[in-house]
Design goal:
The structure is a single chain. The chain has ten helices and eleven strands. By secondary structure, the chain is mainly α. The strands form five sheets. Strands 1-5-6 form a three-stranded mixed sheet, with no helix packed on it. Strands 2-7 form a two-stranded parallel ribbon. A hairpin with a 4-residue loop joins strand 3 and strand 4 (31-32). Helix 4 (92-111) packs antiparallel against helix 5 and helix 6 (161-176) packs across helix 9 (220-230). The longest helix is centred in the middle third of the chain and has 20 residues, at 92-111.
Amino acid sequence: YEITYGDWSSDVCSSDLRKSEISAYDFRTGQPLLTDDVIFQGQPLTRLAPDMPFKYLGFRFTVTGSWEQEMLHILQSAQDLKKHCSKHPYPIDLATKVIEAIQEARFRYSAALVPWTRERLRSLFCIWRQNFKAAATIPQSTANCVFDLPSSKGGYTLLQPEVTYLQALLQHIYHLVLFKDGIQESAIHHWKKLTIELGTDLPVEMGQLLYKENAPRQCPIARLLALAYELHVTIQLPLAHRENTSSSYLGGSPSAIS
């Protein structure tokens, strides 16, 4: 099968042909598909195995749905910031704000799409904390409890990835149901499917069950429910409002971990 476009498209794409890759996967059989017969401008495209990541719109994931490379990229990019944190000529207050803004923005960009584990989020926070210490010219040996205590107790509370993660997930779900279209219908369908699977439509109970699972789900609704339970916060869930049910809130539980 040969891919053909207009003359203007051929001119634009010809220089980027070396960067063009093709990947195919049969989800029914769980096997990769051959792509040798797909030709573009008389040449075969570079084949990318379905379990190999590729970059699209700044995201790194595989055809099979793995976001492992994106998580590793966020962790490494935060780690790489450390060399820019120390020995800077800027006021400490400015330097710490800039570093915090950069590392949070990098994480937030893809956060809602990536099934972050609690362990990975803790690792990311450790790197964020190291970067803050470096930017503030504080020795890395400084006790971490300083950054866990509230300001009323003499501490300096740092923004934790879980907070940004929760905000990104909630914003993402609001966007999914913003318009009455196929995307909204799909989101409501996944919500209903989740309630049937878990045997309850009470968000607190759903969050508790999802929190106990070994690994986070790809579904952003499920991840939001689990995270809301973990952080024991109450937030409005737009899906339930669209469905006209009484389950319009996600609630945390007093029994959630501290």
